[in-house]
Amino acid sequence: MMERVLIVGTGLIGASVGLALRSAGFVGRIDGWDQSSLELAAAEQMGAIDGKAASREAALQIARVADVIVLAVPVLAIKDWMQALAPIVGAGQLITDVGSTKLEIRELAAKLYGGDGRAVFLPGHPMAGKESGGAMLAEAGLFDGAMWLFTPLSEKPTAAEKEWRGWIGCFGTRSLDMDAARHDEICAWVSHLPQMLSTALAALLEDTFADAAEISAIGGRALRETTRLGASPYSMWRDVAMTNTKPIADTLLALEQRLTHLRENLRTPELREEFELANQFRRRR
């Protein structure tokens, strides 16, 4: 039975997990650790965690007795924590993550976890968030209505996995199990490409117009919505780009080719065909 949880990384997602657990009725203890003392203090102040580990070493000590450890840090840091935790956790314990890419995490988990006497690792990815991070933006309802993706190592979940999935359901989420490579491919299209597109457009506008007053005066809702993701910090996306490079590059190349097609057909009937295809995509959703 899950009685103690350790959340490694108490930013937007990690703190929201803590708040969601409390909102769903979890009465056990929630400890937290974050590289930023400000994020950690904010998470404690808002009630996302009950106590804070004073150091990484202190967090590793808590991990020895935690029932569930949630890794809510960037992907490369997740992999680092996976290796640090593997020798000190054991049977009955569950480690899970919220990383935006899954193939490298799942491959490492298969080497380090599962089997007799070992803790179980359940790779996860909640499709929820905001363009800005930080514990101060965390909320218990962040995952309500969202899809929580899993790329499990085994088709037979342990009791700990089942219990964690149950809590996830109490957050108001839906869940879907996927192959890790397929996860990274699909997320490159539906999440990573929109981010890169918004970043490129916002950077291009800044480079071209800087603080020209006309942009703010003329640009309306369409511009705000299209560049909203451009407010996301590099620190949130560096590891995504580094651990899902080829799928993201493939989507960017496909988009470059599509934009070239549009540019070359601004005065032909094929432009209408593109609009009709785009309209059809939107109607399906």
Automatic annotation (TrEMBL):
MF term (GO), any: prephenate dehydrogenase (NAD+) activity
PROSITE patterns named in the record: PDH_ADH
UniProt cross-references to Gene3D superfamilies, sorted A to Z: 6-phosphogluconate dehydrogenase C-terminal like domain (1.10.3660.10), NAD(P)-binding Rossmann-like Domain (3.40.50.720)
Pfam families: PDH_C (PF20463), PDH_N (PF02153)
Domain Prephenate/arogenate dehydrogenase, residue spans: 3-285
GO biological process, one term: tyrosine biosynthetic process
Secretion signal span: none
Keywords tagged on the record: Oxidoreductase
UniProt xrefs under InterPro entries: 6-PGluconate_DH-like_C_sf, NAD(P)-bd_dom_sf, PDH_C, PDH_N, Preph/Arog_dehydrog, Prephen_DH
The protein's name: Prephenate/arogenate dehydrogenase domain-containing protein
Organism, as annotated: Edaphobacter acidisoli
